[in-house]
Fold each of these.
Amino acid sequence: MSGAAPAYSLRELRERYGGEVIGDADLRVSRVATLENAGPDAIAFFANPRYLRHLQTTRAAAVILGPDARDAATVPRIVCENPYAYFARVSALLNPVRGTEPGVHATAQVHPEARVHRGAEVGPFAVIERGAQVGDGAVIGASSYLGEAVRVGEDTRLYAGVTIYARCVIGDRTVIHSGAVIGADGFGIAFDRDRWVKVPQVGAVRIGNDVEIGANTTIDRGAIDDTVIEDGVKLDNQIQIAHNVHVGAHTAIAACTGIAGSVRIGRYCRIGGLVGIAGHVEIADNVEISGHTGVTRSIEQAGAYSGVYPFEPNRAWRQNAAQVRHLAQMAKRIAALEDAIDRLRSES
Amino acid sequence: MSGAAPAYSLRELRERYGGEVIGDADLRVSRVATLENAGPDAIAFFANPRYLRHLQTTRAAAVILGPDARDAATVPRIVCENPYAYFARVSALLNPVRGTEPGVHATAQVHPEARVHRGAEVGPFAVIERGAQVGDGAVIGASSYLGEAVRVGEDTRLYAGVTIYARCVIGDRTVIHSGAVIGADGFGIAFDRDRWVKVPQVGAVRIGNDVEIGANTTIDRGAIDDTVIEDGVKLDNQIQIAHNVHVGAHTAIAACTGIAGSVRIGRYCRIGGLVGIAGHVEIADNVEISGHTGVTRSIEQAGAYSGVYPFEPNRAWRQNAAQVRHLAQMAKRIAALEDAIDRLRSES
Amino acid sequence: MSGAAPAYSLRELRERYGGEVIGDADLRVSRVATLENAGPDAIAFFANPRYLRHLQTTRAAAVILGPDARDAATVPRIVCENPYAYFARVSALLNPVRGTEPGVHATAQVHPEARVHRGAEVGPFAVIERGAQVGDGAVIGASSYLGEAVRVGEDTRLYAGVTIYARCVIGDRTVIHSGAVIGADGFGIAFDRDRWVKVPQVGAVRIGNDVEIGANTTIDRGAIDDTVIEDGVKLDNQIQIAHNVHVGAHTAIAACTGIAGSVRIGRYCRIGGLVGIAGHVEIADNVEISGHTGVTRSIEQAGAYSGVYPFEPNRAWRQNAAQVRHLAQMAKRIAALEDAIDRLRSES
């Protein structure tokens, strides 16, 4: 979210982030924009060929693009290997995050045995229970809740309305958006005769450094051992991570995905939205899973995996989906036909 | 939610909303009920043929129904073109919403540079940051949070525990339910060498008039331009709308659906629950999508679309689902059989 | 969540919960652990054959296991019929839940016409509206909200940030986790000419005894009659239950599942995660539904049901999924081949 926007010349950007400047290096930009909606003080980026026509008509002052596209634009431009990542850095420069304003709001309830670093910011109506610790530069948003013995690292930011249950640990420079619930009880129930018996969830959640957790995402505490989110993991909104899941470093997961208990996900995986992963499954490093896929078995090889029934106009879908129920029978009929053909051939 | 229920005669209802009264027009009703559970002071409606038997045995004082069913009941009744919409209006009349009680609760934290209309109501523990504006007749529920420069229109109602991030704009007469988070950062990350770099999300969210947003729904702010929800859109609970999505006016979306970044949805669409729509897809006006469908390509024609694997008893499903993995091979075997038949025929 | 852990001998456990002790019955355990990570003061359990190797190498002081596995371990052990349920009870004994600390926090806003039992605990920034009732031993977590005339039973626990809309009723010994929203308006809208008309949601939600509701789960109030969750139901996180759903006693539902309006689910059902159940469907008792299944029709027989497209490596999936669109045509081609074979046979 932007504060007052400073301005930088293309030369200054090159000095900070590298790349090659083509055109007027003294040209200054003060904000980012899309190719389509840019005004004359803005810098845009080009990374998706689908928007080539916007590149050619953009009113942006300057554009960031890759070597392949260096001649596809006429405006001043920065050519670099990874335009999207370059743009991310320029945008962060032009849109500095509001800094921490140290101090505890008068209305916040901080237990006398909690330790809040004097460089931390605690918003109105926040509750910090006994034994909790908040590091230097951290921000605890309005109406957030830190249970007993929770630890929040340095420069970590909790937006308004985040809940962290007792004994969970959050690393440094991590961002947690509103409505996220970290450390609620895992869904541990044992069926006994005629009713469910609750299995106490005595583990916690450990979240690493440089993690981002989206709005209304839930991460349950472990049943016995801890649920673990390693460094650099990026979680979108409304993701559910069940007890004792382990997510490897730098894995990114899109919104609405549900991960069942004791799943182990490798490093550098990319998982789409609305994916379901069944309990106890193990997923290797560098696995990519398309949105809406149901993963019911372990994946041992890096690579891309998919599984979603393709959509169709309703009438076609009804006819094709009806045949799904006859697939096993169709396979048998085909085999029988092959036999019949063989016999006819041998007779003729 | 109902307050004290007034009573109206069928004649009065006809004067307000039209339709034809059959039977005693002076009969008064004071509350709505289902056909099945109605008591003698209640008015019910009949719109779904599945409940015909309940129509014939209802103890309701009166019933609202369509022209086709005018003779299917013997109780006093109102015949109209759209019984469900008619019922909605009668129910709103009999169950007036609790009015706004103007004033700011003593515990609320309103920044001195925020502007709250004196006709607005702000509940306990609400936080309203610098530069935010709240219109006449609006209600900001308990423990809700309005970030810097947020604007909330007239007669808009936020229930308890709604979070609106900085600079988002909400129109008039819009309703937002508890736990909804509007304007959290979109999931913008660029992979660079060995880690993800955050792309600042500098757009906002603009929500129109007469919108309804369900509990725990999340709508992310735009990466650069804004995320837009047009007038009259109705969103159920636990929907995820990613950055830069555009939802056209009067579209309705059922619960748990996830819409990825930069999707553009037309006007008057009806989208079922647990639907996933992939990034950058465009959907025309008047499209209907069945629940649980994964939409991976743009839909250019109005109409109904579906895509969900039909469920079956476990054993049958296991046999049929196994064949899904051989579909491409089955298609080849069928083609080979057709060739063989052709050859045999030409030989015989 | 654990407090200070007491210690018990295996003999004491047998006296409380039955079973047979093999080995040193005076051996004392003070905490639970997994087989894999247990230390010498811990008791673990063995129920899943997948972890047999951990059973054989565990450093646990004692293990709980079933009759089949009585000789698969050498450490002191308790043999019983249902090791997981036995373990649940032992864990509850060793990890007593923090007791209720009666009293209303100074910052809580309790309406003078609300009735909070003096044995109940109300946390900071909680809001309790007019006519609400809170029973003996109940805990209302920080920043939770109870609307008008809400009733919360005895020994029921709401964690921080739970929202209950007006007139909903929660039974005894029920647990509701953070971010859950009970009683928001159902998604009732009637289309009229060119816009949606809201159907007032005048029912409420009734939740029984011994229910557990996960973080960020939403249960909507009924349109006319109530939404009902019977005794002993267990709901995981981020579940959506629409208006007028009825969930039978002792049914358990995993995370992210969405249940549309007026669905009726039987008793003792087990429903997986990310399942979608279409409106007005009825499901018998003792039905089990696999994760990710879309249920579009009623299920009248107890048993297990599934429906998810199996996932595959991307290339194979693309080829097979393409054929899904030709299934109806494939069925016709197979029938034509069968006819052709019959004719060829009769000719030869």
Amino acid sequence: MLPALALLAPLSLLTPAARADEGMWLPEQLPDHADRLAELGLQLPVSQVADPMAAPLGAIVSLGFCSASFVSPQGLMLTNHHCVGGYLQVNSSAANNRARDGHLAADRAGELSAGPGARVTIVEQITDVTDQVVGRIGKGTPDRKRQAKVEQARKALVAACEAKPDRRCHVASYFGGAQYRLISAREIKDIRIVYAPPESVGSYGGEVDNWMWPRHSGDFAVLRAYVAPDGSSAEYSPDNVPYQPPHWLQVDPTGAQEGEMVWVAGFPGHTNRYALASQVAWTRDVYYPWAIGLADAALAILAEESAASPEAAARLASPIDMIANGRKNNQGMLDNFRTSGVVERMQAREGQLRAWVAGDPARQRQLGPALAELDTIVARDQATWQAQNVVGRLTRYSDLLWVATTAVRLAEERKKPDLQRDEGYQARDEDRIRARFERLERSLWLPSDRRLLQLMLEQAQALPADQRVASLDAWLAEQGGVGPALDRLFAAPALADTAQRLALLDQDAAALAASADPWLGLARAIEQWAAPQRLRDKERAGAWLRLAPLWMQAVQGARPGSVYPDANGSLRVTFGRVEGYSPRDGVWHLPHTTVAGMAAKAGDSPFDAPERLLQAAPRAPRSRWADPALGDVPVDFLATLDTTGGNSGSATLNAQGQLVGLIFDGNYEAMSADWLFDDALTRSIHVDVRYLLWTLEEVEQAGWLVEELGQAPR
Amino acid sequence: MLPALALLAPLSLLTPAARADEGMWLPEQLPDHADRLAELGLQLPVSQVADPMAAPLGAIVSLGFCSASFVSPQGLMLTNHHCVGGYLQVNSSAANNRARDGHLAADRAGELSAGPGARVTIVEQITDVTDQVVGRIGKGTPDRKRQAKVEQARKALVAACEAKPDRRCHVASYFGGAQYRLISAREIKDIRIVYAPPESVGSYGGEVDNWMWPRHSGDFAVLRAYVAPDGSSAEYSPDNVPYQPPHWLQVDPTGAQEGEMVWVAGFPGHTNRYALASQVAWTRDVYYPWAIGLADAALAILAEESAASPEAAARLASPIDMIANGRKNNQGMLDNFRTSGVVERMQAREGQLRAWVAGDPARQRQLGPALAELDTIVARDQATWQAQNVVGRLTRYSDLLWVATTAVRLAEERKKPDLQRDEGYQARDEDRIRARFERLERSLWLPSDRRLLQLMLEQAQALPADQRVASLDAWLAEQGGVGPALDRLFAAPALADTAQRLALLDQDAAALAASADPWLGLARAIEQWAAPQRLRDKERAGAWLRLAPLWMQAVQGARPGSVYPDANGSLRVTFGRVEGYSPRDGVWHLPHTTVAGMAAKAGDSPFDAPERLLQAAPRAPRSRWADPALGDVPVDFLATLDTTGGNSGSATLNAQGQLVGLIFDGNYEAMSADWLFDDALTRSIHVDVRYLLWTLEEVEQAGWLVEELGQAPR
């Protein structure tokens, strides 16, 4: 840290002192930060930046799991390469492996459908609905009833909202349920792949470089949104036309210099910034070590199976990436926790909070009991975590078991009126479920599915006595143990056939209950444990809804100033500067990497850069996209922004609101920022728009796309 | 590289542009660099800096294998911890392991003798003797005779010089034998250890951090020179008194800041800056891979034997370090050669040189034949390298075989008049040989000696047919092969006994030849091959003496400007600045490390920092030795100086000629600087004098030493 300041001292003559910028702000909170934004150099009125329906925020959209942004009046969008992996997989075959080789559409006709499940949502209205959701719930309402009322109110709001055509709506909860907003978005259903680089560019360095700096990933992709000729949203059709968005971003080809203001608007998924210290300590001491051990076991299986054939490798690449990424995240958390004393700092902060509460009798009366009850709930969670997590992974690691449990559950939910069905299993969700059942055709791999199921069934059998899943134990005993059960399940699994899998969705609960398919038997056994567990979960959620606002009241009271809600997938804004950091004494991570640095890493996989890229690299310093100060085309850069998963693909904007890059990762040294933001260490990692422009122009010879991105012809 | 420049751009507003400073200059060459020295900020007259007999150069001394400097009028000297390992070992026992634990003398009486072989030499006169050495050798003199004449002239000059009492003289050769200087030095024979830190401070990070940055080694030690009461040099005696040097350095406790001028005067040992490209390419492709393989085999043996007992570990620590250090050097060279294209750049430079020669008929006539002959000699070297290197390591890896061959060789040389004896085996060398024979008592370990000898004998048996060592083959056949030979050699080796070992030195050649000791038999077999080999080597040396001046003429002609001679153990000056570097794209190595960074690395060996150091560490930022900009006590720092082995322990001086640190290493990324200096990558690594002062004052409570170093009492 200190050497870094020393090195930056001369810089500070030119720019204001370095300062980290914690906060995933709601757009409406930005006026509170007008001074800081001015200090950073924002050139737009704060009121404009705070308006989600005006440019530039109006150009930011969601892909569901990632962010993206419009960059041309013809519906062109930029996002990360790692956000379009699924889109590429549905367009891949053994003969034409687009997931590996990427895709460049030579013209509009060459733009490939991203598949039936692909969706873009464009926020059109954000309404505070706190009063409608919790305003009329009496203080003494029992927890389970409280949860049900909130759930009902949210579903009713969503249903009314989605009565309009092409709408996708949801009610987001903020500050643990103290506030609610109804977010109404236009949904576009025909998404096409315009350009995706080869995997060896888009995720250059693969798992080795994942989360790491220096980084040289060209983690970008170009999509286009299409609508029906009449402008309405429509599923893919060759007759569809490019969507003309109300707002799109300008691209600034001068990029972002060290020290320059950058900001990001996007849809960060989940953070735990207001967790209890006891939750963090338990996560460190119990959960992460367990999750890492299990991930290692699963990865060992997947690696073995993957080595068996190129087909297995192609099908298992995505689950391996996902589990390895989670494992590296968990390990990174543990490393960060140790080096940065995260738990100790959260404990100290919580100690101050508890002292603040206890220090005033009125506060103690109002908040003290809530703190005590939260402690009790957390203790109970920590006593029953293992069964929940084992069952959760049981139906996640085995694709076929996921199909069976989803079908059984959906059939059960269908018995209820739509508004009473659980979230995720309503009529509005059925298309997505069907699309996922269909997509399994391209990723299902029975040998690994069997071994992963075996791994998790053995885990279930090793659960402690007080956490046994009795119905699963009984089913396994009936089968004669894990081995015979697996033999039966995998003898001729009907669910491996796409038609039979989809047919499940047309059967009612009675038909499924009558089925002799062993997969459905196993699913019923699990559901027998899960159904009452869900009721307990709902009761806990009701208690949490009651207590969280009090907890946040204590948080805000003990730590005055503007407080932002935890990430929840809703639109947020974070701002800061392009800046390096010191990962350890004596080392400074520079804020930019270059094409020369990318080429210097080239070699075996995962650094198997394509030949055409390496051949173009020596000319990069003389290209029009080269940075004069760096003397080369920049590849990736660091900034002090506060981001997390879900922000991937978000446009990185400059002080004029122009696009200078795409955020795609955070740094290893600050993984624990999901729990506690670290001023000195937390950095976001972005791909520089100049690397995209250079790649399109000099490597892919796709000048027409460079022009559609607003750049002059070469 | 480029990101570094970009980052430094603001710095350049304050200081002149960064520029690397190649050159190990003779002091007399410094006036050629007056402009650059002024630009760097030198505050002393260049004439003063260029005078080896004035301060500050007059305070720089040699320990033989390392440099050191006087820092008080009472003969106090500073050098590196890694330079006093041998001194500590002779003062170590199982009960009091000073090599591991270090030593702090509570008072003068507690200062420990560094042992009978320890010497300090203080340069008193440097005389150009080129004319005496080569001035009267006729052009047509045959090569062997040329070599003999040069050798004779050098020995005669040394003998005359050493006729004065307390003198140690040598004739150094520059530019491959184009110039010679007689260096006359005063020799002091009573050296004492005042302070050495524990090994876990002095070589903190051990082999893991060796050559690496960021570095946190406290690689310093404090010695004192003693003389007889009458001021003459004398071997250790309790009656001796501290030597009062004519010059000593002032210590500047404000240290060296980033960008500040620093310079080093010392005794760099060996570089190959003017090698032929074919020599470098061969070294990369043949020699280093072979040497690495052999080092790995030796290290595996030493590691196994070392694990057997604490005594073995103690005795083998030093050879393990030495071989591991050499291996890492060789591997680093290969890495550097690859990443920096050293061979390709030397080939390109030599291509220009050859074009320059060929481009002019007169030059071609004068220099062309010399180039062709050099090519022939290099080709011959490369055809016979293996036998020479195997025999070389045979007598280096086995201590007992080294004893036997040294005794046999010395007895042979003693037959001749002293001036005709080979260098290293003259009367003046006998004390040193005796001291080494004696010191073996503390390091000899028979189990590893046997296995290393076996390794090398097997290497000898695997030599290609055209490089067999016939006399060794015959001896081995006589013994019945390697196994029986080893059994006989190690049955009851007389040479393992110190008295019997020393007694060898009192026997004449005839007595040794009559001995039935199998070690002497083996030594005689080797000598039978080595003696004619030495004659061929001398002939080659004579040719080289004839050709090297022509080669240097071509080097200098093709590349005008001041040229410095290769390092040869004589006094040199190098200057530059405190500055970091970029080891790879996206990363900058900061020029200072801190006590906090040292503490953050603490853990298992080799990072087993002593408890008292770790306890003092958190208070370092508030100590009087803390750097205000860093906010902590600096540990090590980087500079752009041009140094190599032998410079270790040299005082690092500031623009006022005050001591701010001690150089102890170079960086891994620029190991190949011994062949080719790389402007962007070559850095020297120094321990900051403030770390020494802080350690003495805050960790060791040795305030009296801090005061003797010219600092105010706390």
Amino acid sequence: MPRRSRTDSRRRRRTDRAGKELDQPPFRQLRNPYHPVELLSADEIEAIHNASLTVLEDIGINFLLPQASEILKAAGADVDKDGARVRFDRGLIEKSLETIPDRFTLHARNPERNLRFGEKFLNIGSVSSPPNVSDIERGRRDGNYADYCDFLKLAQSLNIVHMTLGHPVEPLDVEPAIRHLTSTLTRIELTDKPFSGYSLGRERILDVIEMARIARGIGEDLLLREPSLTSNINANSPLQFDIPMLWGIIEMSSRNQVISITPFTLSGAMAPVTVAGALTQQNAEAMAGLAFTQMVKAGAPVIYGGFTSNVDMKTGSPAFGTPENAKATLIGGQLVRRYGVPYRSSNVNASNAPDAQAVYESMMVTWAAVMGGANMIYHGCGWLEGGLTASFEKFIIDAEIMQMMAAFLEPLGVTSDDLAVEAIRDVGPGGHFFSTPHTLDRYETAFYKPILSDWRNYETWAEDGSVDATHRAHRIYKRLVEAYEQPPLDQGIREELEAFVARRIKEGGAPTN
Amino acid sequence: MPRRSRTDSRRRRRTDRAGKELDQPPFRQLRNPYHPVELLSADEIEAIHNASLTVLEDIGINFLLPQASEILKAAGADVDKDGARVRFDRGLIEKSLETIPDRFTLHARNPERNLRFGEKFLNIGSVSSPPNVSDIERGRRDGNYADYCDFLKLAQSLNIVHMTLGHPVEPLDVEPAIRHLTSTLTRIELTDKPFSGYSLGRERILDVIEMARIARGIGEDLLLREPSLTSNINANSPLQFDIPMLWGIIEMSSRNQVISITPFTLSGAMAPVTVAGALTQQNAEAMAGLAFTQMVKAGAPVIYGGFTSNVDMKTGSPAFGTPENAKATLIGGQLVRRYGVPYRSSNVNASNAPDAQAVYESMMVTWAAVMGGANMIYHGCGWLEGGLTASFEKFIIDAEIMQMMAAFLEPLGVTSDDLAVEAIRDVGPGGHFFSTPHTLDRYETAFYKPILSDWRNYETWAEDGSVDATHRAHRIYKRLVEAYEQPPLDQGIREELEAFVARRIKEGGAPTN
């Protein structure tokens, strides 16, 4: 067995500033080298595509914001007399999708954190938007600013988290009118990774766009050339885009910032009870939203978000990480590749605790996301209870899962050295490979090293208190929060951000109606 | 929401005799409709294949049983003067592999439980051979006959378990000389599904073959035409087959019974530290074993078992469900398909508790097994702690996971009805699908129904005691064992089995040296 001291010295080298408590791989972009899994034939994908075009032509989508209707009408869509229902002929949809870039770079305030999208890159985002927070020590409670900060510290410390998406938990103790200002300032201070703003009306998204610009220390011209913010747009399924979200598209896309369009198509509730039907509706809503971004500004970066799962037909409760969710995720990838648009998926589950159920549901859909060719995994770390709770333990468990996926995506070496015929000859029948030169040369980097898994034998583990994975995750969360260090932020930028936030708070923030 | 009573009446219809406590899908064969995931190119697979042929030609494999050496020599292999080291030229290997059937039926004492192998069928076996047993109430303890029986009751009751493989836990309180007789009699009484015998020397496997024949009420001629027993052969890696296992191959294959050849190639310990090297060795050992079965009897059914995982280089402990394990499983499938032989994989993990780690490790490799085209998942339910413990809770958790995989393998309907354009039109923007005819016609069978997952909302779950998945699994295990009913067994067959066992026990059983 290699001596422990060598491993330890390597561990020290591998650490990052904020994550120095943990022996984790460095921050890096992940790229998927594998051919995606295809559940349906090309003809079947075409059938879903065509059915969704029929929905867009014959049934149409409600766009509830008059300014959006005007843009749609000008672009050639058929807008009803009442101004809400919009029908698209297939030529218009196809023409609009043509200008969507198949790749782009999302800029962070720290250029080392810039993220590329498309081209088989895979980016992991943290959990977004739960109203509750939980850990096994303090239990489940309302989302609040202190826990919001702790999640950001975890997201900054764990190299596998590429970006923060939405509020990792809602800081409900911060007034709604100014919450976006406070939370964005905090986010820029606590992490240097790319982030997002909520499309909750025009004022909020404009504030966050401005703060993203200031954080990078750039002017409006450069912002227009360099996407520096993302915002997620949920269709209000079935077949509807609401006013606050449409403002988000207009303000973000017109400035070349990144929109992801994510229909909320839970099969059996907001979408048909068949997975194919739910995907037809998802695809219709997504294509309408994608097309609209291009009508706002041709060439604006946009991501196709798949979120089709199903409800429990006994209770009506949303279910996640189901076999249907996995199928929809993989087929969603097939559809999205047809359009050449980056693809967003999610790591979701419906468990009430960070337990075995949470993990098998998460793994079910995470595998599907990875093998479906997703470019972004939303809710990558920390989502629990169908999105109603952000869990600190689940955050750590998910970080381990995402790291394992990252290691799985590292291509296997198949050189003559890798095939190791000479090592097999050296060892021969009945021997062992622990101390052969072939092993000693490679053992430090040969295998994935976990941050959470405990591979000690049962006796050692039991003597040490029989601590299960969820309780170990709790300890890691606490240790990471304690060891957290803020990333550097230019003093001038900090002052400019603080002044902006102070002014906007003085003005009353954003409307809350 | 559909009325509860309709669901309940359906639940009653779906139950099986022994599993009547549970709303589970019926016993059925699973078939994988998807194209397997391919991590390596055809050239890279060829490189591994060729490297393993070089190992067989230049280095060779030790066959420690003189009777095996004789068979190998007669078939044209190059046997060393000392009689143990055997080298194979590639022509001999290729010729030998040609006679392996790409499909076969494994017969059970109840013909409704017969299992087909090959042809993209997927069969799930229960955990095999741990020396310890655990449940969260009584803790970890030595394997024993009472728990052995309870695992068989679970395996019989859960329709997702197709077969029992080895002892689900070692009944250490039964004398080694007669353990195979007692355990096999019990197994035939408690389950009517296909089963296996251990290749622990000539006498034991001959006893179990005879009992499999009696259990089916058939003669030796029919047994020869109808495989009715499986036995697993581990290479004693690196590059060695031991005497008891070789007797197993000789007695099983000569009678046309099913052997699975499974090299025990833990990368970094018994195999090279590179995954490609470990696979080279796995493939050399597997091809040697496969070829030997055909030298014993051309056309005998045999399965290629992949078990390449890695050790923790810090401690030397075996690790399972790692990213390397997943890669080896998928690439193993690519190799096996090259030879047209059924493929065995495993559901494994290294956790000391039925917790989050156990599940993410299990899911990592189970997904790889399924998408790698495995025809048999060994240790499908109940494996814990690197195989040192059989866990009752993990058995139930795994049953849920395997059921989810089975649902994932059901092809998606993409008919015009499935695409649901008319249902989307009926509901329209802002509506919901709960009570549309399209939903009401399909809701009972639309989605996978879990046996373990709890999808109730947090408040209801918390009022009901906040029971996590592992504790729910414990309750299900207890309920299933209580509700268990023995499958019918012909009285004449029972008496013949009992008489055989009584005679063999009187004779002293099998040698224990």
